[in-house]
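Quick log. Single chain, no ligands specified.
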Amino acid sequence: MCESNMSFTCDDYTTINTTNDGAEYPKGCLTLALDKEELIKLVNIYKDYPTTTPDTFTEKKIYESGSGKFSRAEEIVAHAKSLGVKKIGITGCAGQLAETRQFINHLKGEGIESYCVICKIGTAHEYITGLPENFNTMENANNPICPPVFQAYLLEREQTELNVIVGLCRDGDSLFIRHSKAPTVHLLVKPVTVEQDSRSN
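-> predicted structure:
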């Protein structure tokens, strides 16, 4: 446990209270540490930004109706339909192309258009990013970069309204999310060290 003069984080507690039904909060709880002005400022983010409130209500509706029933793919479809999304962008690793095609077929069955951009698009060499030409971590010296920035740009050009990540590598997914203009969710997460993808159900 943290010392009394240190900042607490949620993992420090054995007692968890995530409701406002009158249950006691543990000493030093971050909920208690938020002052009223901070809380109002944070709540207003939901009120003041038109894309935040629909996402919040949609998440709550899907959670209440599909928790423990929907697969991750079904949750994404429900989310898209609740927001009125007509076109979903898909970005992912070539190694997960089979799963990507399954998801695209699922979207087609639900009447949702999709546009897919996998890694290695553009076949740009690693050294264009600033790496020295003699620096190469792959056996193939001509290996092109995985370009999440390119992928985000192409999906923006296609005017996708919601983007879905299918197995981008670590750092690749964070770069894509940073540069994506549309909201982004994960379908699959790929832990490279074990050379397999982790399917979220």
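The helical segments are 30-33, 36-48, 52-66, 72-83, 97-109, 148-157, 172-179.
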